[in-house]
Amino acid sequence: MEIYVGKEKRIANVVTEHWSDIKGPDRDWPERHEIDTAEIMESWQHCFIIEVKDQGYICENAGEKAVEFYGFEKKTRIDNKYAIDAPFLRLYKIDAVIDKLDTVIESKCPINEEEESESVKMRQVLLPLGNKEGLNSSVCKFIWNMKRIKLKTKSSVKKRFHLTAKGKVISTQSGKRHGMVKRSKSNIRNQRGTTILGKSDSRIVKLYMPYGI
After folding, report:
1. Which residues contact 74 (CB under 8 A, 6 or more apart)?
2. Of 19, 41, 89, 151, which alpha carbon lies 20 to 30 A from 68's?
3. Do 34 and 136 share a domain, yes or no?
4. Which pLDDT band holds residue 120 (cuts at 50, 70, 90)?
């Protein structure tokens, strides 16, 4: 399995190495009760365990950072009707997460990958957990998932928008780039300075400036 290199990737390495150590060379996966959360306490904040039952995927345990980003709390059912206002749902569809879980169950192999878009960079490790009977539809199956998130501010947004102390989005007035000759003096005067965006536009802009500007 690929091991990440670099200080910022340490959490992914800790989780993967702990899973590999307790699995050993003779098994395809460790059992759920063998996971020692105390040994990887710092990394555990970014992890959650999904139990696969007949009714679908159920969150069995989750760290503080995982709950903050995904909204997956204990006993949460994860399906295409999942509608909690979690940050990751503003960037990805829940179907994409379910597809990843399906892949681990079907292949019975870990997933270790890195994904990046214009607004988010994420490192993902999905590791199967099971029991002596294996991973099949008649046995409860587990997936251990960890995502380390590094949100990025879009450079074009930094040039055009700013936040007030109360979190409102400030932008320069529109309609001043061309055609100024035909504008009245009062219209030009009213277009001076900046304006505050409405709620719908502000929500879109804030997706690309996660740490404010």
Report:
1. 59, 60, 61, 62
2. 19
3. yes
4. low
CATH number, domain of 94, equals 3.30.450.20
pTM for the model stands at: 0.58
Q: In the predicted model, what is the mean pLDDT of the chain?
A: 75
Q: To 10 degrees, the CA torsion angle through 20, 124, 31, 72?
A: 150
**CA–CA gap between residue 205 and residue 193 (Å, rounded):** 19
Q: What is the pLDDT of residue 127?
A: 85
Domain boundary among 144, 163, 192: 144
> How far is CA 147 from each of CA 117, 138, 142, rounded to the nearest angstrom?
15, 28, 16
Q: Are residues 30 and 102 in the same domain?
A: yes
Q: Cα-atom radius of gyration of the chain, to the nearest Å?
A: 23
Residue-range definition of the domain harbouring residue 163: 155-208
Q: Please give the share of the chain, as a percent, with pLDDT higher than 70.
A: 75
Question: Which pLDDT tens digit goes with each residue over 124-179?
Answer: 788 888 776 665 433 444 555 555 456 678 888 888 999 998 889 999 888 888 88
**DSSP letters of 47-90?**
EEEEEEETTEEEEEEE-HHHHHHH---TT-EESTT-----GGGG
Is 164:178 a contact under the CB 8 Å cutoff?
no
